Amino acid sequence: MRTGFLGQMVLLALALLLVFAPGADALILSYQTPAGSVDSDGDPVSVRADVSTTGGVLTVTLTNLQNDPKAAGQLLSDFGFTLANSKTGQSFLVNGSILSSQGIERTIANDGTFNIPGAPVSALWNLENNVSGGYRLCDLCAGGDSPAHTIIGGPSNDGFHYTGNSSITNGSHSPYLFGPTTFTISIAGLSSDIYVDSAFFSFGTEEGDNVRGQCILSCLPGRVPEPSSLLLLGAGILALSGLGWRTLRPTK
Fold this sequence. Notes:
Elements lengths: L1 H19 L7 E5 L14 E6 L5 E7 L11 E10 L5 E2 L3 E11 L19 E6 L2 E5 L12 E2 L13 H4 L6 E12 L6 E10 L6 E3 L1 E4 L9 H22 L4
């Protein structure tokens, strides 16, 4: 009897964990370039976008994860995305505008050294509405600051220098934005039911070098579940197996 009661309690706890674990209806989703992604020149690219609808405002944080880029083609210059309603499955498209943005400027000298970070500045990107049925946060478009203010990754392993070619060190694209760069966007009617259902990233200082993003966190139905949900599901299965074995095991 005691074993049965404990089993019920374990199953209840696991069920609660599964219900309240970050999952399909979470407010924050993350997209990243798939492993092995490259730009049009064959150089590796790796970036991430974290998107939140908390408080009725869309917040996008972009980070370039590719350290010590070889060339300007590896710089993040645009983020495109579409929105949908998680309850109805219908696409959501209402014109939005950037309320604020901020990032840290980084200027790289000819010898690859860079400035000490100062206070955050405006990213000076623009938001385009109704681009292929969605939105585009862009440095390359009209109203952006290209060729300046593309988003760059960290320096080389020594932590003090960039070793890329002259497109990185000759000053033609400085200042860059470094580290997480955040945009807050006002969109009428936005709620926590609205989520990013597709995304792409653009690289370099010319239009068209795009890499489709892959959902990696809090993915909704039809996308890859996040690891925490899979681990909890596995734990639940193991618990059920263990309880079944204890129930069937002969008593002494």
